[in-house]
Structure formats: structure tokens, C-alpha cells
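Let's study my pick:
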Amino acid sequence: MKKILLLVTSFTISNLSYSQNNNVIVEKIYSENIEKISANSKVKKAFKYIIDIEEKTMKNLVELTEIEAPPFKEEKRAQEFAERLKLAGIENVWIDSIGNVIGLLKGTVGNKNIAIDAHMDTVFPEGTDVKVKVKNDTLYAPGVGDDTRGLAMILTIAETIKKNGIQPINNILFIGTVGEEGLGNLRGVRYLFENNNPKIDTWIAIDGGSIGRVNNQALGSYRYEVVFDGPGGHSWGAFGLVNPHHALGYGIKDFIEKADEYTSSGPRTSYNVGIISGGTSINSIPFKSSMQIDIRSVEPYRLNDMEEILFNSMQSALKDQNEMKRSGPDLKLTINKIGNRPSGKVDESVPLIQRTIAATQHMGVEPRLTIGSTNSNIPISIGVPAVTIGRGGDGAGAHSLDEWWLNKDGYKSIQLALLILLSETGINSLDLKNFLD
């Protein structure tokens, strides 16, 4: 009996991005707003404070990096991050039922909740050596940049706001999320928006990349595990039984031919068979053959079209192998959907993006509009203004044991993040009219 099972479990996609057309236009009102905020005496003191406590920022970075946070096991890092948020001056801090850390700083009016986020999890399994090694001022450790640096930035931003007496008009949510990496499938941010408690009106994520990254478009992805199951047997004595490997090979060839034709035109779409497994020996007919395949596109309908191509190709392979058999039971097919990141875009004209671009330009950096797969995918897909900005500094090797990060003007990325945050929340000593709608 033929069987197709579609399951939704969890997976993730690397935090990659690529640039869009960067002919950005900023309306004068947003540039003026950024100039007004940056000229505020408390904000000026805050910018200096960020530089003054760089040693503390680096200490937070090193010590949090050295706390393991593999997928689905972020508890220890979450507890420590929560405690450090409290030490930064955020009194109302809690860990929700899925494991996200949330710190609430109430605004003087509080009509909206503005979230600033970094993810707590890494891609590395339990037992990975996460001890930070320092060579010529460069930090080497798995996860030191992606995304522990973002967590350290949030702690500094929270402390800076509190220590310098900055009173936001709208509420600020300082968030450390679980499940961005590994098998997480954005489970932390997905949970926040599905439960809507607290309600989030604007989302600012800090993740990979240098200062100037303005990620306003979500790169969507579907991921699947395709499994062919058969009885298995001896390569000579049981010859004629269905062969899962033969079916998978047929299915991959058929899919790639059709997918290549489909992706040769239209909005950018990609596909990749990344893992193939199964079999026990060269002289055994395998009882199982499986692959994992990643499909990405900037357009949601393209993902659905590619899904249909995949399903049709695997069905065709199933039919072919079952018709070819000489004895024994039919081959069975299972297709598990193991990852689903939605696509979407926040238009450049949206205030959050305008403010982010204006703030970036104010810092003397050329803004780069990018497309990527980050925690922002979820809010973007449901129409909530969201942006992902870079962690700054200099670094490379994300998702590898040789990951490194260098504090090359890293303070500027913290100042920029603070400026973007305050432009969204407003501060009490400035005109309220832009923040009370």
C-alpha cells in the first residue's frame, strides 16, 4: 500500500543574506527625527557610556559564549541572560513557557511594545568546546558571533538606557529567543507571535553581519525529509525486491530536471539535496533510503510550486519502482516537512525601515538592504514591521568550530541599535506626537 505522510516538525536555515538594490531614499522627516534624538543630551551621554563600558560588554560576551546553548537546551544560558538583564536594571524579567527570556521596560505612555531581540541558541551540539580563546585581540569560539554578540549588545543597551535616565515613551521588550538555529525552526519568535502575549508592535533583531545591514526582506524556505521504505534483502538472493536507493535516485533526477527548468526564470528560487543516507552494506538491498532537501525563495508561491514538483517527482519514482519489482511488497514513501520559514517584505517606506536607514546614515555607514532568513521572518510574514541589523565588529566562520569575532569599532553597532530603538519608542523629553498613534 502506498503511503504519503506529511509531517511538520522543526528545522532551521543558516542566517544568510544577500543584498538588494541599495538605491535607498529616506524622507526628510525621518532624518530630522534621528538628528533630534541623537542631539538629546541624555542620548549623547548614552553614546559615551557605551564606549566606557566596553570591557563589561566584552565580559558578557565571553561569559555567555562559554555557556552551552544547543538547540532545545538553552535553559542555562537563558537563566544567566535573565539574571544579567536584571543586573542591567530591568526589574520585570521572566522566562516564558517555551524558554524565551523577556525583560519589560515600561514607557511613560506605553501605547506600543517595541521588541529588540537576539537568539540564545547555537548550532553546536552538547559537549562542544565553547571556551573562548583570545589571539591578538580576536575571540575564537563556536557561537561567539552568532548570536552571543547580539545578547551582549542587548545587555549593554538595557544598562545604558537605565543608567542614563532615558525614559522611552513606548514600552521596550528586551528579548533572548530560543530555537532560531538547529532544529528550532524559529520556535521562540513563532511562539511569541502566535500567543501575542505580550503583543509586539515592532520587532528589531540583532544577528549576523556587519554594521549597515538593514534586512527588510524575509527569505522563505521549505525543508523536507524524503524516505523510501522497503523490505530489504540480499543483493543476489532477494534480487527483484523494491530498492529504496533506486527509487530515490530516480526521484532526485526527475525533481532536479523539472526544478531546474522552473527556477531558470522568475523570482529567485533555489534547491539543494544536502543529505542522503541509508543502506547497510554493498551486497544488501537497503530497507530505507532518505534525503533532506532545502528549497528557498523570495516569493511564497514559488515555494508551493516547488513543493508540488518535489511531491510529483517522488510519487513518480515510487510508481516506477513498484511497477519494476519482481516480487515482494510495495515500496512506501514518506515525505516529512521539517522546516517552514515564511517569506515576506517590509517596504522601504515603512517608518521602521526609514528610521533604520536614517540612523545608519547618521552613523556614517552606508545602509545595505538585504534579504535573509532570521527571526524577523515571522513578524514580516504577518505584517508586523520588523528589521534585522548586524552585530558589527569583524568576524567570520559562523556555524563552524573556528568561528571568530574581533571588536573592531563594535561599539558603533551598539550605538546604532540604541538609536534605532529610541527612534521607534520615542524618548520623553522630545515631541510626543510621532509616538502616540
